[in-house]
Structure prediction request, 617 residues.
Amino acid sequence: MIVPMKKVTLYALKQDKEELLLSLQRCGELMIVSTEDSSPQEGFSEASEALERTRDTLGFINKSVGKRGMLTPRPEVERSELLSVNPQLKKLQSEVRELELALGKNTAKESALAADYGAVEPWIPLDVPVEELKDTRKVAVFTGVVPEASLYSLDALEQEHGFATLPLGTGAEGRFMVLFCPKDNADEAIEAAKSIGFVSVSPPRIEGLPKDYAAGLAAKREVLAKERDALNDSMDKLTEQRDALEILCDQQETDLERRSTQATTTDYTFCLKGWAIAKKENKIKKTIESVTDAYVISFEEPEQDDVPPTVTKNNKFVTPFETITDMFSRPDAREVDPNPVMAPWYWLIFGMMMADFGYGLLMAVLFGLIIKIGKPRGEFGKLIRVLLYCSVSSAFWGIMFGSYFGASWFPPVLFPMLDAPIPTLLLCMVLGALHIFSGMILAAVNCFRQGDWQGAIFDNLVWIVILTGIGFMFVESLSQIGSIMALAGAAIVLLTAGRSNKGIKKLTGGLLSLYNVSGHLSDILSYSRILALALSSGVVAMVFNLLAGMVQGSVLGFIASIFIYVIGHVFNLAMGLLSAYVHSSRLQYIEFFGKFYTGNGRAFTPMTISTAHVDLK
Prediction:
């Protein structure tokens, strides 16, 4: 059900603004919107920067020790604790920030030392100081690297060109070495070496033996490693207070939401504009009166050009399914809420795609435990509850078709799906037609609400008569009635679909509209995917059962069959859940919503207390 909304305008004294905003945030019933001359509150930029720093700090902790598990309980706090920023928590954040900077500097130093060590490592075998690697009066000295594959060729060139080599260590490019040759033959010798891949490389810019320099680097790295371990120990201790940082993050998020509120301000007064649920007028007034009696507030009905936010209110079964609709688009505040009709259809179709009692039982246990232990919130929590509810329909259709983990433990109530694909397909078509009819009825309801009774009857309800008649034509005992219904409905569409046109276009408009029968029939055929998914899941389960049965000839074989059962059915359940979720949603979005739904609404987001990391007591 779409909840009626009202447009709110509030005038009050500027001196009461901060306390009023705080009280309205605690109330959580007023969605404040921006206007052309409105602006955020004082301190907005500072609050935004503070929140960003805290998020970075939390991100650093999560990167260091891992994110909080999905099923890990979140800290619980009182509502009042989030309405102000605790300075002690900001001090904790500063400590974590200092540790983060220290670890960053430590890592940078270790990286630099590692790079230095990597550069000098191939030169460690050199037993003379680096500064002595220079030409003498008669000998030219060259340093460089030779690919490993060319070392044999280099040995052959030594005697031919009269030079000597001193092999050193290896690197990614090959073998480092020093070449010695007479100065009068230096050019010829180095060209010959280059012809087999020798590349000149300068020695590291150090003094003394490379091994001594490398030992010094190793000692410095050891000191930095101990420093890093000490910093990590300190970080581990502070990580134990991650809950406190998460509370700080939500405190700052709440503070930022209040400071981001758009208001028009004069020297002595300010003005807020926004939206509120119609039934919450008195609550908002009492909230304001608890702060000041110097105010003026008005609650007005939305005008034609206004776009009020959408609030839906449904029972406990339907509410979780709102997340399926919201993934497509939020309902428009002026149209009918699709969720009370969509929810049972989604529940029924999802279960038919799974169609196994055993899988339904596993779903109930799995998602029940997630809700019990993890207590998921928000849209994710709604989705988990949708899957929990769908476990019941999955088990129901499993009983109808006699499927229990892909086996036939008990006879089916209807018929075995794997042995009767044609009756199952017909059942899918009938359910699909009824699903589409419900969408047409909702379209007619929207038309009636807008005063367009002709559109409701001639553009929507008459198609139910036509499609029902076409279906009856395939039943021998109802074929005559079906023909009459189809022809009568077609005549109505032919005469009325072009009613807004003039002259001959009235008839051509009816002919073009009548062609839509092919589109409606193709929509009904889309529900054959229910059969395809149910069959695929059932066949895969049956195959794993056969594989497990084939190895049960011994004790080891029986143990192996247990692994086959577990792995096979868990895999099949996961794939079945993914497919059923996607294709059930697709049937709602395309076939069902396509008949009536505009979905041009926006969510109602009142100024309230933000709880991204904690739960309220």
